[in-house]
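Forum > Structural Biology > Help requests

Title: Can anyone predict the 3D structure of Estradiol 17-beta-dehydrogenase 11?

Hi all, first post here. I have the sequence for Estradiol 17-beta-dehydrogenase 11 but no way to get a structure on my laptop. I'd be grateful if someone could post the C-alpha cells.
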Amino acid sequence: MQFFLASFLLLPFLLVCIVESLLKLFIPKKRKSVTGEIVLITGAGHGIGRQTAYEFAKLKCKLVLWDINKHGLEETATECKRLGAKAHTFVVDCSNREDIYSSAKKVKAEVGDVSILVNNAGVVYTSDLSATQDPQIEKTFEVNVLAHFWTTKAFLPEMMKNNHGHIVTVASAAGHIGVPFLLAYCSSKFAAVGFHKALTEELSALERTGIKTTCLCPNFINTGFIKNPSTSLGPTLEPEEVVNKLIDGILTEQKMIFVPSSLNFLSLMEKRRKSVAGEIVLITGAGHGIGRQTAYEFAQRKSRLVLWDINKHGVEETAAECRKLGATTHVFVVDCSNREEIYSSVDQVKKEVGDVTIVVNNAGAIYPADLLSAKDEEITKTFEVNILGHFWITKALLPSMIRRNHGHIVTVASVCGHGVIPYLIPYCSSKFAAVGFHRALTSELEALGKTGIKTSCLCPVFVNTGFTKNPSTRIWPVLETEEVVRSLIDGILTNKKMIFVPSYINISLAIERFLPERALAAINRVQDIQFEAVIGHKIKMK
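Reply #1:
Sure, ran it for you. C-alpha cells for Estradiol 17-beta-dehydrogenase 11 below:
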C-alpha cells in the first residue's frame, strides 16, 4: 500500500519536472562563476586538456596542470600565465596509481584543495582485438577509467567536507556505441560513462548536491591521437569547438554533454533458433548462480562443457549435475582476475578438449561501498574480473573462431551497465565497460566480415545468485537464476545482441534518458533498492 501511495504521489512530481525541463529549453541557463576555483586538469599537455586550461585561465581560475609530457605541459602553462592565470605544473603518469596519489598530496600541500577536477587524460590504440597487445589493453583501462577512480578518491573528501566541487569526466561518443578496431578504447569509455553516472547517483544519495558532475561525450576530435579520423556519425571536431561546449556545460552544470548535440540520440535494433549440439562451450564463474544454471541448460542441449571457477567445490558440483544430464564436462579451477592463469588454462583447454566455439564470460566480482570507503585493491579486482578477464579470454579463444568464421561470445553484464545505483561505482563502471566491450566487439567482427561469429550481452536486474544477500526493490522484480538463464539461452539460440531481463527494462532505460535529474532522484527513492552483498554491510538507497 505504501508503495502505491508513493508511486501515485510521484506521478505529478515527475510531470512538473518534465514541464520544467521543457521550459528550460527556451530559457537561458544561469552560468555560475568559477573565479578563484582551483582547477586540476589531467592530460593538459595538448588537445582537449590544453584548450580547457586556456578557457579556465580566462575565467580567472587557479590551475593545476598534469601530464606525462613535460614539454607539452610547460607550453600549456606558459600560455595560461600569459592569459593572467596562476598555473602549477606536475609531471604525472596517470596510468600509475601511486604517482597519482603522491602528486595529489603535493598539490594539496603546495596549492590547496582542488574544487574542480577534469579527468581528461586518455590513450587509444587502434587495432583488431587479436593484434592488440595485453599491456596496451591494461594501459587503456589504467588511464581512461581507473585514473578517474584514483584522482576522485584523492580529491573528493575535501569536496564532501565543503559540499562544493565539480567532477568532470571526459568520455567519448565511443562510450555509447561500438567502433571497430577500438575495442579497448570503447570499453574503457563506456566504463567512464558508467563511472560518471554512478558517481552522480552516489553523491545524490549522500545528499552532497553541492558537488556537481559533468560528462563530455564528443565525436572524433582532431587531437593527434588518431590520424585522419572520420565517421558517419558526423564531422570530425576541432578541440576549440568541443571545449567551448564543455565549458558551457560546466558553467551551466549540465550532466551529459554530447558534441555535436545530435549524438544525444545514440542510446536509442532473426528469430530462428540454432542448434548448439556438439559445440564446445566454456563458461566462467560456473560454480554457482547464473554460470551453474547456464551449464545445466547447455548440458541438456548436448553441448560439450568446459567449466571454470575459482571455487573448486562449487565447480565440481556443477560438473557432477551436468554429467547426470549426459554432457561431457571438463573442470578447470581458474582465477579470472589473473591473466597468466587465464592464458595457461586456455592452452590446457585447447590441448585436452579442443577449440572453444561458445564462450560465456560470466565470472564477476562486487564490493559494496561508497567510493571513498572502497579499497583500491577491490576496485582493481572488480575491473580485473568483470571486464579485463573478458579481454584475455576472448583474445585467447577468438583466433580459432575467426579462422572458421564460427562462434558465439557472450558477455554477462547487468542493468547496472546502463543505469546506476550509489555505493557500487566500481561495479557499475565495470559493467558499463562490459556493455562497451560487447558493442565494440560486435562492430569489429562485422567490419572484419566475420559475421559467422555472433555476440550476445545479458543485462538483468538484481538476481538471487548469492552475490547480493536479500536483495529487494519496490519497482524492479528480484529475479531467480532460472528465469534469467532461460532468457539468456533463448537470446543465444536466436543470436540476439542485447538481452534485457525483464525485457521492458529496455523501454524504461530509454524513457529515463529524457527525464530531468530531480525526477531520476525521486524514482531512485521510490525504488528503495536494498541489498547486503557482504555480511555486515547494509546498503540502502536514501
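The first helix runs from residue 2 to 24. Confidence is low (pLDDT under 50) at residues 1-10, 532-542.
Shout if anything looks off.
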